[in-house]
Amino acid sequence: MADKARGPRPPRVEAARDEAADIGVEARLAAGVLLNAALEGRGGLDSALSFREISSLPGPDRAFARAVAMAALRRLGEIDQILDRRLQKSPPLAIRTILRIALAQTLVLETPAFAAVSTAVKLAERDPKTRPYKNLVNAVLRGVGRDGPGLTTAESNLPDWIAARWRATYGEAGLTGLALAAREEPATDLSVKPAIDPAIVAEALEGEVLPGGTVRTGRRGDIAGWPGFEAGDWWVQDAAAAIPARLLAPGAGETVVDLCAAPGGKTLQLAAAGAEVTALDRSETRLKRLHANFERAGLPVEVVVSPAEDWEDDRTFDAVLLDAPCTATGTFRRNPEVLRATKPADVAKLADVQHRLLDAAAERVKPGGRLVYCVCSLEREEGETQIIAFLRRNAAFRTAPADPAALGAPPEALTPEGWLRLLPSQWTEHGGLDGFFIARMDRIA
Ligand SMILES: C[S@@+](CC[C@H](N)C(=O)[O-])C[C@H]1O[C@@H](n2cnc3c(N)ncnc32)[C@H](O)[C@@H]1O
Question: What is the C-alpha to C-alpha distance for residues 200 and 187, in angstroms, rounded to an integer?
Answer without folding.
Answer: 18
